[in-house]
Amino acid sequence: MKSNANEIKFLKNRSIIKFEGEDFLGEIGIDGRIFKALTLARISVGVISQQAIENGISILVQESDSEKAVNCLIDEFEAERKSGKVSQIYSINNVSVLGFVAEDFNKILAELARNNVFPLLLNQIAAEKRVNIVVTSSQDEKAKNIIESEISKRPKTVHLAIIGHGNVGKTLIEQVLESSEEIKRRKKIDLKVVAVANSRKIAFNKKGFDNNWNDEVVTAQNPSNVEELINFSKENQLENLIVVDNTASKDFVHNYHALAENGFDLVSSNKIFNTLPIEEYRKLRYTLNKNNRRYLYETNVGAGLPLIDTIKLLHLSGENITRIKGVFSGTLSYVFNNFSLRDDKFSTIINEALEKGYTEPDPREDLSGNDVARKLLILARELDLINEFEDINIQNLVPESLLEVSKSEFLSRLEELDGEYQKIKGNQEPGHVLRYVGDLHGDLQKEKGELDVKLISVPATSALGQLKGSDSIFEIYTESYGEHPIVIMGAGAGAKVTARGVFGDILRVSETK
C-alpha cells in the first residue's frame, strides 16, 4: 500500500549516540563496526549521520537502549579511545524523529528557526526529497505542526495572547472570533486566542477561546505574569506566537525583552515602550533583531490610520522629512472641534467624550498633553532622532490645582475649567477655531528635533480648522513635496478603530511568519 507523500513519520522516545574524534572520519569500516557491535548487542539502529564540522558520527537508537549502546561502543572502540582517535562517546536522550518528503526544505528550516526549533540532527536523501530531522521531545509536537502546515498547505496556526481586555482588548477579541473563519479561508491563517490576561490573572485555552472567553477569564486561577505565559507556550509547544499588549501599563512593557527572547512577536497599542529612554528603546530593537522577532505598533499614533507605516517607508526610501504637524489626539480633536462650534461648556464636552469612550479612564491623561507628546516622540524616533520625553515643550490643559487630586475628585470639579476655556475661545480672531496640535520641526537631519505640544487658534477654513468629530490629521512635510504636505486624515480614536488597527498588525505579522 502506497503511503501518502504528505505523511510525517513521527518517532518518539529516541536517543542520539554521539561519537566524537578527529582522525577517523571517512575511515573505511567504521560504520560497519558500529552496526556490527550494536547488532550483536541486539540494538536497532535508526539513522547514521556524519558531521564533518563536529568531527563526529551520530547514531539514533531507542531511548531504552541508549546506556547499553554507549557501553557497547566504548568496548568496541577501546583501542581508538586509548590512542585519542575517538575522544568521547555519549548519549543525548529525550529526542524525537520526524521523517517527511519536502519540496522546499529550506523554507521548513526557516519556519522552524523562526519558532526557535533547531534540529539536533538532519539527514537528507536529495533524490527522493526525503528528510529526517531529530528534535528534542520538548519541541517535537511544535515541529510536527509547523512541518505539517508547510507540506500539506493547510492553514497556519497562529497563537495569540491578548494582554488587557478593556475597551480595545474586548473589541479585538470579538473581531478575531467573528473573522476567524473568513481569515482561515482567505489568508490560510488559523488565528487562535489561547491566553487572555488582565492585571490580576491570566486565562489559558490551548484549543483557542470561543465566545465564552470572558467567563473563563472570570474563573481563571493563574496569576497574571509573563512567566506563566512563557511556561504555557513551552509546555504546550505552541508555534507562531504573538503577544498583543492592549494595556496602558508602564510595567508590562518591561516584559517585551523576555517575550521576544522566548519566541513571541509583539503587537502593541501601548505607547509607553516607544517613549522610554532611547537606550532602552534601542536595546529592544537589538533583542528583536537577534531573535528574528517583529514588533508592530501602528496604532500608537493615529489609531487605525496608516501613519507610522507611511513615515517608515518615506524615511527608508531616503526621503528627507522636514516637519510633521497635526492633531494627534482623537480625544482632544473631539473636545475642541465640538467646543469651538457649540455653546456648551468645556466640562460638558469632556464628560461627553468620557462617556463615548474617547478619553482615557482618567481624562487628565489626555488633557495633560502627555498622550500627544508620546505620539510626537514616537514619530521623532521613527526618523532616528534621539529626543527624550523631557525635550518636549508641553502645554498642560489641566490647572495646577487639579493635577494631584484623585480621579473622582477631578471629575467632580471639572466645571472649574469652564471659565478659563470660555475666555480662550472668546479671545480668538473671528472665523478661528481651537486645535490642540503636536509639531515636530527644526533641522531633522541633526540628532534631535524640536517638539511642541500646544493649544493654538487656526482659521476655520484651514485643513486643521475643517477637522470633524474625533478625526485626527497629520501633515508630513518633505523636501520633495515642498510646501505641499502629504496629509493623512481620518478616525483617530475609539475602541473599534484602534482594535481594527491592532488586528491589521496581527495579520501583517502572521503573514510573514
Descriptive tags:
alpha+beta, VC0802-like, Rossmann fold, Dihydrodipicolinate Reductase, domain 2, 18 helices, 25% strand
Task: Give a written overview of the molecule.
- The mean pLDDT is 92.
- This protein has a 7-stranded mixed sheet, with helices on both faces. Strands 2-3-1-4-6-5 form a 6-stranded antiparallel sheet.
- The longest helix is centred in the middle third of the chain and has 21 residues, at 167-187.
- The chain has 3 domains: 9-152, VC0802-like (2-Layer Sandwich), CATH 3.30.2130; 156-300 and 499-512, NAD(P)-binding Rossmann-like Domain (Rossmann fold); 307-493, Dihydrodipicolinate Reductase, domain 2 (2-Layer Sandwich).
- α1 packs across α2 (66-76) and α6 (167-187) crosses α18 (495-512).
- With 513 residues, it is an alpha+beta fold.
- It is elongated.
- The chain contains 18 helices and 19 strands.
- The protein has helices at 30-40, 66-76, 78-83, 105-114, 140-152, 167-187, 213-218, 226-235, 256-261, 278-290, 307-316, 330-341, 346-355, 364-367, 370-382, 407-412, 418-426, 495-512, and strands at residues 9-20, 48-51, 56-62, 88-101, 121-125, 130-136, 156-163, 189-197, 201-204, 222-223, 241-245, 264-268, 295-296, 321-327, 393-394, 432-441, 450-459, 471-478, 486-491.
